[in-house]
Amino acid sequence: MVRYQPPKDWQQWVAWLAAGLHGRSRWRLSLILLGMVFARGRRTVTTWLRAVGIKHDFANYYYFLQPLGRKSKKLALRLLTLLLVRLIEGQRVLLAVDDSPTKRYGPKVQGAGIHHNPTPGPADQKFLYGHIWVTLSLLLRHPLWQTIGLPLLGLLYVRAKDITKIPKHHGWKFRTKLELAGGAVLRFAELVKTAGKTLWTVADGAYARRPFLGPLRMRGITVVSRLRKDAALRSVPVPSQTKQRGRPRKYGKERIDLRRRAAHPRGWQQVACFVYGQLATKTIKTFLATYRPAGGLIRVVIVKEDHGCEFFFCTDPDATPREIIEAFADRAAIEQNFRDLKEVWGAGLQQVRNIWTNVAVFNLNLWVHTLVECWAWNKPAEEIRDRDDSPWDDPDRRPSHADRRKALRRQTLQNEYSSLHANQRRSSKIRLLLERLLQLAA
User: Fold this and answer.
1) Environment class of residue 12 by beta-carbon count within 10 Å: exposed (0-12), middle (13-18) or buried (19+)?
2) Residue 435: which pLDDT band, with cuts at 50, 70 and 90?
3) Could you tell me if 405 and 343 are in contact, meaning their C-beta atoms sit under 8 angstroms apart?
4) Quick one: pLDDT at residue 360?
5) 104 burial type by CB count under 10 A (0-12 exposed, 13-18 middle, 19+ buried)
6) Is 381 exposed, middle or buried (0-12, 13-18, 19+ CB in 10 A)?
7) Measured distance CA(12)–CA(18) in Å, rounded
8) Read out DSSP for 250-293?
9) 51, 39 in Cβ contact below 8 A?
10) Residue 133 burial by CB count (10 A; 0-12/13-18/19+): exposed, middle or buried?
11) Which residue among 126, 247, 264, 300 sits deepest, i.e. has the most Cβ atoms within 10 Å of its Cβ?
C-alpha cells in the first residue's frame, strides 16, 4: 500500500468527515479520497484503489461503499458544518440547487433510466440512459477568484416506472426532484439556523413550483429563481376600509402581464451589480406581486438585456434588486461544478451497479471536489498554478480546479520526500528524480 502524506489540514478535514461513519471502517475513507486525488485515466473505483496500492483487500472497499451511500446525507451535514466554521464569514448562506445527468451503460445498473438530455450536442441526442442527480452546492465569494461552488450533496432521482426494477430490500422510495431538493434544503436550513445565519436558496425556473417553494417559505427560507413570461401573477391586495367577515385576501384581483410590464417605457432604473466576476450596470424594473406557487407576496425584477428581458423573483419582498440579480448570477457556479465533476473527477465513470454504491461514488466526487477547494482557499495563486510547462498560457488566469488538485498532489509528494532521512535526500540524483516524478504525478 502506498503511504501518501497529505497536508495536516487535509487530514483533519477528512477525519472530521469520516467521524460520521462506523468506527471499524471509517479509516477507509481517507484512502479512497487520496486514491481519487492521484487516480489517472478512466476514473473507476478500481483506479482509485490502484492509485493507493490496494490490491488484496479491494472487496472490502466495495462493501464499504454501500453503507457510505446510505449515510451520505449525514456526511453532507458534517461537511457543511466544516465550511460554516472554516470559510463562511457573512450572515447569509447561499445554496444553489440544480440537477445533472450522468450517462451509464448496461441494463443492470440500478436506478438508471431514460432521461431528457440537457446538452444534446451536435448529434442532437434528446434523451440519454443514466442517472439524474439533484445536487446542492454552497456558493461563496472568493476574495480573488469570484464565486466558487462547493458541492455538498447529490440525491439520485429515479422515475416512478423504474422503481420496480430496484430490489425491495434497498428501501428505495419514489420522490420527485422538487421533493428531493426541498427536503435536502430543509435539513441544511436547521444547521444554518443553529449557526445563527440566514439561508438563501437559488434555483432555475424548473424548481419555481409549489412543492419546492411552499415548504421552504413556511420555514422562512428565501428562494430566488427565474419567472416564466406567462407566470400567473396577481396584484397586491388592498386592505379593506370596512370590516368584513373571514380572512383578508391573500392574492389581488388584478392579473399582471409580465410582457406588458416589460414593454412599458416607464419605471426603469439603473442598478450597479457584481455579476460573473465584474461590475455591471443593469437596467431593471421591480415591483411587488402575489404568486400562488410561492404562497403569497414576492419581489419581481425585470432585467433588460440586449437579447430581450429576463424575469426573476424572490420570496422575500424586502430583498433588493441587486441582491436578487447577484444571487441568480452566482448560480452559474453550480454549472461549473458539474463540468469539473465530470471532466476532472470523472463523475459517472465508476462502473458500479448497486444503487447505494452509485450514491456513494457520486457523493465522493462531490466531497473530494469541495475538500480540494477548501484546502486551496487561502493559498496564494503562485502556489496553486504552475505555468512553467505552458509559456503560451496567460500567467494571470484564474487557477482552475484541476490546478488546485495538482497543487495538492505536489504538496503530498513533497511531504513524503521531506519525511525521508537527510542522507536519503542529499543526493542530487534523488532530487532530480523527485522533480521529474512531481511533474509526472501532478
Assistant:
1) exposed
2) low
3) no
4) 96
5) buried
6) middle
7) 10
8) SS-SSEE-HHHHHH-SSS-EEEEEEETTEEEEEEEEEEEEEEGG
9) yes
10) buried
11) 300
Residue 410 confidence (pLDDT) above 90: no
Placement of cell 439556523 in the chain: 193
Kindly give, in sequence order, each residue whose CB lies less than 8 Å from that of residue 375, ignoring residues fewer than 6 positions away. Answer: 7, 9, 10, 13, 404, 408
Reported as type and span, the H/E element at residue 212 is helix 210-218
What distance, in Å, lies between the first and last C-alpha atoms of the chain? Answer: 20
- The three cell numbers of residue 290 are 402575489
**Burial of residue 242, with CB atoms counted within 10 A of its CB: 0-12 exposed, 13-18 middle, 19 or more buried:** exposed
Other CB atoms within 10 Å distance of the CB of residue 131: 26
For residues 173-196, average pLDDT: 94
Radius of gyration of the chain (CA): 25
What is the average per-residue pLDDT within 118-139?
Answer: 88
pLDDT value, residue 395: 72
Backbone angles phi, psi at 167, to 5 degrees: -55, 140
CA–CA gap between residue 397 and residue 27 (Å, rounded)? 37
Rounded distance between C-alpha atoms, residue 99 and residue 154, angstroms = 9
Residue 1: the pLDDT is: 59
Contact 222, 201 (CB under 8 A): yes
Rounded distance between C-alpha atoms, residue 30 and residue 411, angstroms: 16
Residue 182 has pLDDT above 60, yes or no: yes
**Residue written as cell 460554516?**
84
pTM for this structure?
Answer: 0.91
Residue 248 carries which side chain, given as an amino acid letter? P
**Within a 10 A sphere around the Cβ of 45, how many other Cβ atoms?**
23
User: What pLDDT shows up at residue 439?
Assistant: 56
- Residues 379, 385, 386, 387: is their CA dihedral positive or negative? negative
CA distance 318 to 299: 8
Per-residue pLDDT at 422: 55
Q: Cell 436578487, residue? A: 324
Residue 79 has what pLDDT? 95
